[in-house]
Amino acid sequence: MRLTRHLYFMFGFFLLVSVSPSLAAPQAEGRPPVLSIESVGDLTLEELPLLKEELLVTLNSDEQHWYKTFHEGLLFFSGWNDITRRVVSQFSAEEQTKKLAEMQLLGIKIGYEWSKDNSARKVDNDTLRQWGKDLRRAAREDVAQLAEVLSRIESEINLIIKSSS
After folding, report:
1. Do the Cβ atoms of 102 and 158 come closer than 8 Å?
2. Is the residue at 31 inside a domain?
3. More confident position, 33 or 73
4. Fewest CB atoms less than 10 Å from the CB: which of 75, 105, 117, 158?
5. Which residues, including other chains, have CB under 8 Å from residue 144's CB and lie 6 or more apart?
6. Confidence (pTM)
7. In Å, what is the CA distance from 158 to each residue of 24, 30, 86?
């Protein structure tokens, strides 16, 4: 099962990685507070690592391993951190700080949900592959399209998280 998950992860990130260069709501019981934040709003980049740390303590050691793998990637596959750099670089200098915060918040949420056991998670490898295809297609179009796709993915992960509480 671990090997299968590892292979699916590698394939999913292979697709997600190829993006070409061209507030807080009430907290659900038992859920980390960061998952209730639907958009970056007034959050600062300095607050996001603190929220990430808050979330990490709620994960067991296996989930922490997969969460870290999601963000850092594997030997031949980039993780969310690299994908974030690639996506953010598509935007103007004025937009980059906001887009960086949006991508980091998305990564926290997606990584949290994806790191769960296969039987419990609502974001699977197929979802990652689809979002990767959407991001690559949008990056080939223009920045406005890329912003729309990011907004849609944000809405989808928020709905997924709400439905799993």
Report:
1. no
2. no
3. 73
4. 75
5. none
6. 0.78
7. 12, 16, 23
Domain count, the chain: 1
Would you say 73 and 79 are in contact if contact means Cβ atoms under 8 Å apart? yes
Environment class of 21 (CB within 10 Å of its CB; exposed 0-12, middle 13-18, buried 19+): exposed
User: Per-residue pLDDT tens for 14-59?
Assistant: 444 333 333 333 344 567 777 888 888 867 778 888 888 888 999 9
Residue 62 lies in a domain: yes
Tens of pLDDT, residue by residue over 115-144, are: 999 999 999 989 988 998 898 899 888 999
Structural domain boundaries, residue 119? 2-18+42-163
d(CA 136, CA 117): 28
Which stretches of 18-142 are DSSP H helices?
47-56, 61-72, 80-88, 93-114, 125-141
Distance, in Å, from the CA atom of 108 to the CA atom of 118, rounded to the nearest integer, reads: 18
Residue 83 · residue 149 · CB < 8 Å: no
Whether 144 is covered by a domain: the verdict is yes
The arithmetic mean of pLDDT across residues 65-71, rounded, is: 94
pLDDT the model gives residue 16: 42
The residue written with tokens 């963000």 in the block is 71
